[in-house]
Design brief:
With 108 residues, the chain is mainly α. It has one domain. It is built from five helices and two strands. It has a two-stranded antiparallel ribbon. Helix 2 runs antiparallel to helix 3 and helix 3 runs antiparallel to helix 4. The chain is globular and about 55 Å long.
Amino acid sequence: MMLKVGESTVATESIQETLVERGARYGSFDAHAMITQNIKKAMVDSKNWSSLPDYMKESLDMVAHKIGRILNGDPYYDDSWVDIVGYSQLVVNILKDRGDKWVIKRNS
């Protein structure tokens, strides 16, 4: 069976194969979702969340997603750990490029 996605047509069999591969690596999607959403709820409930710029929130959301995968799936899969570093580094790069107050305060 074929599935139309935008301008592309994808075989539903290949989608199922990908889902099986991801499930083997990261565990069941529903368990991952529960873990990740609980992490995100804790972040949103923190005192600083509402004052963070979108790029920090997005980085933290992606880190929560990767932590959820680690806790629910294969914790020895280094790609998840590397991704956490990458999303954190993106924030550091923006802070340095923009001279946000945290970097100015930290370096003075």
